[in-house]
Amino acid sequence: MARLADGDRAAITPAFELLWPVVSRFCRHALGSDADGEDAAQEAMVKLFARAAAFDPARDGLAWALAIATWECRTIRRRAGRRREAALDEGSLLVDGDSESVLAARELAAAAKDALAELDPRDAATVLAALSDDPAARPAVAPATFRKRLERALGRLRGLLRSHGAF
Amino acid sequence: MAHFEADIQRRAARAYELGRTAAALRQVAPVALFLVGVPLLTGSGSAVLGAALALAGAATLWRGGVIGRAARAGLLAGLAPLLTPALVGGLGHHCAGCGPAVPMPLCIAMCVGAGAIAGALLALMAARERRRLTFVAVALAFAATAGALGCVFAGAGGLLGLAAGLTLGSVPPLVAAVASRPR
Asked: How many domains does chain A have?
């Protein structure tokens, strides 16, 4: 990387051959998908070489390359998240078709989000744990205790939703 | 798979060249303002030479290596004699009035001094390079041209003063560096 920063074009191929397998493997592991991983690795390699002139030779070249790859993985993950959200929005529109009910559903969702934010953090965690499919998300308490907690948390959530005019 | 990787490598190499071009332009841009601005302000009519020097600097920075580092050092060191007329003007003196009839007028003295500072700085920087002579030759060429754009305002005396200053400033540290080099 220091040679690349200094303008040594002969270092392009060795640097690429050294970094590509590492960055590619890192991105595939980070994203848990071969296709997304390859995309992120390609973008990371292009950005890495584009910024090579600014590389500080005092720094660790591999750490620098992996920092760029991490950033690229985050970008790809965010993009995928946005795509999923857009697909969900489109899906709900297709199911309902009725713009008024879509609007009402959105208002309800917004009110639920606000109410959850206002809820005591322990109550909010209980509600979210109950909604989660993952059993590990539940606190390490007896099922009866959890049910009682959930009942109380839902009662408070209902009260907040009423105050928001959702019911 | 090999074709796929070769394609990414080609894209990476292209991005590398574009990145170097952008970095070179970014580094030269502030100096280019002075290289073009000072001749325009002093009316010496060498703004085109200043622009050409800025372009040459950008090209060598893009190329990189010892000549890239030397060009950057030369352009920065050349700012001292380049800005001499502006500094002297700030003192209320007009370099256009300087001539050989007056013994060592202020402008020529400033060109000698600024040239000596630039030369000494470049020689000290060259001491860290393996290819010292290449570094010094390229850096002095850039510094002399940049400095000449400022010192030309003081006439031929200013240019001669700049050349003398660069030589006086650069030779002693260079000789010392060569003498102390481990054999």
From this structure: 2
pTM for the full model? 0.67
pLDDT of residue A161: 72
ipTM of model? 0.73
Interface-testing mutation among A8, A16, A24, A25, with chain B (most B C-beta atoms within 10 A): A16
**Closest C-alpha to B169, from B133, B145, B136:** B136
**pLDDT tens-digit profile of B25-46?**
999 999 999 999 888 887 767 8
Domains of chain B: total: 1
For residues A58 and A129, state if they share a domain. Answer: no
Choose among B5, B12, B20: nearest Cβ to A46.
B12
- Residue B73: predicted pLDDT: 93
Residue B150's nearest CA partner among B114, B99, B100, B101 is B114
Determine the number of helices (DSSP H) and then strands (DSSP E) in chain B: 7, 0
Q: What is the pLDDT of residue A122?
A: 81
Residue B9 touches partner A, C-beta closer than 8 Å: yes
Tokens found for residue B104: 């060592």
* Residue A91 in domain: no
What CATH number is associated with residue A22?
A: 1.10.1740.10
C-alpha A39/C-alpha B8 separation (Å) is 11
Task: Using CB atoms, pick whichever of B12, B65, B69 lies closest to residue A8.
Answer: B65
Does residue B103 register a pLDDT over 50? no
Q: Which domain holds residue A39?
A: 2-83
State whether A54 and A102 are in the same domain: no
Of B12, B62, B69, the CB nearest to A45: B12
- The tokens describing A115, both together, are 């109410």
Of A22, A55, A83, which one is at a domain's C-terminal end?
A83
